[in-house]
UniProtKB/TrEMBL annotation:
The lineage of its organism: Bacteria, Pseudomonadati, Pseudomonadota, Betaproteobacteria, Burkholderiales. It comes from the Bacteria. SUPFAM superfamilies: SspB-like. This is ClpXP protease specificity-enhancing factor. The keyword Protease applies. Residues 100-161 are annotated as: Disordered. Keywords: Hydrolase, Protease. One of its GO terms (biological process) is proteolysis. NCBIfam families: PRK11798.2-5 (NF008769). One of its GO terms (cellular component) is cytosol. Pfam families: SspB (PF04386).
Length: 161
């Protein structure tokens, strides 16, 4: 029997920690062919998603997939993200959270991601940039808060193997 990764359990735990403390949980996601997000909001094959209760509908965080509905520019979209593609989860307000090493892509068109794990560099200082288009029903957040978040996220995220 194949052992289940700890990653989905850590994601659910940090999501719960964020919500229990009144923080807004966000996930940074590597976008590939299997990822279902509005492509116009993807930058450098990544997207940051607000997964708070207020910003999502029917959120399901399983061991393989994270699925929910969210609004982008007022239009509802079904979002489907493989847990393996989640790069980080953090609280928007203070940047506390956890970053994960890049895992091999699930499709055969991957270049570096398909290399054997020992030959792949691990990104340790990932910069999480929250685009103005992250999922949120309240898009009136100030740029100053976003800049503070980016700075805080860089200093608190930790890579877990």
């Amino acid at each position: 029997m194949q052992e289940i990764s700890t990653k989905p359990y850590l994601l659910r735990a940090l999501y719960e920690w964020c919500t229990d403390n009144g923080f807004t949980p966000h996930i940074a996601v590597r976008v590939d062919a299997a990822t279902r997000v509005p492509r116009q909001f993807v930058r450098n094959d990544e997207i940051v998603l607000n997964i708070s209760f207020e910003a999502t509908s029917q959120l399901q965080m399983g061991n393989e997939w994270i699925e929910f509905s969210a609004r982008f520019s007022g239009k509802s979209h079904k979002i489907e993200v493989q847990v393996a593609n989640v790069l980080a989860i953090y609280a928007r307000e203070n940047g506390q959270g956890m970053a994960f090493p890049v895992e091999p892509a699930s499709h055969s068109g991957a270049d570096l991601a398909s290399a054997p794990i020992g030959s792949r560099p691990v990104e340790r200082d990932r910069q999480i940039e929250e685009p103005a288009s992250s999922t949120s029903l309240d898009e009136s957040e100030s740029n100053a808060d976003d800049d503070a978040l980016k700075s805080a996220a860089r200093s608190h995220l930790k890579v877990v193997k």
